[in-house]
Amino acid sequence: MTGTHLTATLASSGTSYTPIGVLAAIFVPLCAAVAVSLWSYFRLQRHRADAVAMASYRKLAEEAVANMTELRAEMAKLSEHVSAVEQLMRDVG
After folding, report:
1. How far, in Å, CA of 10 to CA of 2, rounded?
2. What are the percentages of helix, strand and coil residues in the chain, rounded to 5?
3. pLDDT tens digits along 38-79
4. Residue of 9, 54, 68 lying closest to 1 (CA atoms)
5. What is the distance of C-alpha 49 from the center of its chain?
6. What is the dihedral of CA 46, 47, 48, 51, to 10 degrees?
7. DSSP letter for each residue of the chain
8. pTM tops 0.70, yes or no
9. How far is CA 64 from the centre of its chain?
10. How far is the C-alpha of 9 from the C-alpha of 13, rounded, in Å?
């Protein structure tokens, strides 16, 4: 059977392609819209999760900077004390 013969046979048996075309014209764009909507939703959720992670990293970085500042201040105090002890040892010895 060739394609033309098959089409003629289906057409002669009363098969109407109009309802199938209308249904395909409705459901294909509808399914595509649902797929795009779902894809966009999950992409948005991924970006939100990335934003939360980035905020926690930013907070961690700020805490690290604050801790380093405190550490430098303590190191400066210790340097002063060590200098004073060294000076005292030079004066005695």
Report:
1. 12
2. 90, 0, 10
3. 999 999 999 999 999 999 999 999 999 999 999 999 999 999
4. 9
5. 6
6. 130
7. --HHHHHHHHHHTT--SHHHHHHHHHHHHHHHHHHHHHHHHHHHHHHHHHHHHHHHHHHHHHHHHHHHHHHHHHHHHHHHHHHHHHHHHHHH-
8. no
9. 24
10. 6
Give the integer Cα–Cα distance in Å for 38 and 30: 12
Tokens of 78: 């210790």
Which strand (E) or helix (H) includes residue 4? helix 3-12
pLDDT tens digits for range 11-36: 556 677 888 888 889 999 999 999 99
Looking up tokens 């400066």 gives 76
The stretch 3-11 carries a mean pLDDT of: 54
Amino acid residing at 51: A
Q: How confident is the model at residue 4 (pLDDT cuts 50, 70, 90)?
A: low
